[in-house]
Amino acid sequence: MGLQVSGVVGVGRGPFSLSVPRGQCVLLSGPSGSGKSLLLRMIADLDPNEGDVLLDGLSRQDVSAPEWRRRVVYVPAESGWWEDEVGAHMADIEAARALLGPMCLPPAILSSPVSRVSTGEKQRLALIRALVRKPDMLLLDEPTSGLDQASTRAVEAVLRQRLEAGAGVLMVSHHEEQAARMGNAHYRMSPHGLEAVR
Ligand SMILES: Nc1ncnc2c1ncn2[C@@H]1O[C@H](COP(=O)(O)OP(=O)(O)OP(=O)(O)O)[C@@H](O)[C@H]1O
Predict the structure, then answer these.
(1) Which residue, judged by its Cα, is nearest atom 3 of ligand 1?
(2) What residues does 169 pair with on adjacent strands?
(3) What pLDDT, on a 0 to 100 scale, did the predictor assign at position 191?
(4) Alpha carbon distance 37, 52 (integer Å)
(5) Which of 31, 74, 93, 189 is spaced 20 to 30 Å from 112 by Cα?
(6) How remote is the C-alpha of 150 from its chain's centroid?
(7) CATH number for the domain including 159?
């Protein structure tokens, strides 16, 4: 059970193979520009690619693209916002409200204009936006980069709850300590492809 990626090639890269069992957090590190974001985007089927990607044995070819991206959600390092107000982006406003405290965010932030929200707040709100859609797999691109220690620990605690509830996480991170705290497995992206660190 979980995510199985086999022989994925695209944008002149790969083949990449890895697995993310449910309940586990898999870390992905590697030099800037080595293709970590590209791999997450290919798994979410946001960039052209070929190869087998299965969730709990179900091939992504057998579900619609929007349904695949709801189940296997990609959260970029910098998310796009298209409405004026933060709350208008949340598919489930009550579920979003319930996550504000655990993410160290003030209750009033859902009614704030996006333009008044800080970069670190937007980063956590983008994660909340993804979480309220109840994905099975979270593909997170540096979800705590630039956050202070308290906010980083808060995000990690929320992710740990999701892992305990049976979700899987594939997360780009450059922090060794975070890998030790969160990662059940760790891959490094190198010019030769993915290398298992542990
Ligand atoms: N759709 C695309 N088509 C072709 N090349 C792309 C595409 N998207 C990104 N690239 C290129 O692929 C390379 C890898 O980019 P990517 O964003 O995946 O790196 P990264 O490992 O996530 O880097 P960083 O740690 O700096 O975020 C870059 O040189 C980038 O310009």
Answers:
(1) 11
(2) 25, 138
(3) 81
(4) 18
(5) 74
(6) 20
(7) 3.40.50.300
